[in-house]
């Protein structure tokens, strides 16, 4: 078995590469700059760009399965790029594709389902690692977290658990045609998450609640358009649908192990906050 992992140096891809390797699977780890990767010598690090599908063609010829990470914003250009990658995979006689998607209704889903390959789609909840992107610097420098809607709930998931499900789907039978919604083991608010970080690093953290307008302005500064801000940042965070806050047993059902807690994730990454 040989598997091409796209986004191999990313949040989930790195865990997938490590777990496949520990299972004795031959891995092609694709990234834009493989020379900067820190994988062991057993991993075949290869160069490719998801925005330039033709760069994947040669690598698809050497494997039988594909892990595809789809970009969050499905612009027309990105949709066409993903569509071309799937076409190239089919032409290369790829037998199985496992795709990571971040929301229901991603326009590339039907292309995958109609591809003729065995397919599995993963829809994870919010990554626990988002705490690094949004909070680590301000906790380190100021002992402060600034966030909107601090009591809104999230079923955050450890990236290694997403990877563990992906590895099962890539290496075992019985996952064809399945769409797995993946959550962590707790429905946790930002306020509770910050409290856990504070306890684990042994340092008080002040939580400053941003107004809804401040949340909008910060998102605009980060380059998000108005539609994305209203639909996802305000809509999904301020008033998340009940399904987004419901803990599901999927990770344990598929991997045989309980999903990792946020406290465990913080303990593994506490040096980023101290």
TrEMBL record:
Pfam families: NAD_binding_10
Residue ranges occupied by any NAD(P)-binding domain in the UniProt entry: 7-99
Highest taxon of the lineage: Bacteria
Residue stretches spanning the membrane: none
Protein name (database record): Hydroxylase
The organism of origin for this protein: Paenibacillus borealis
Lineage: Bacteria, Bacillati, Bacillota, Bacilli, Bacillales
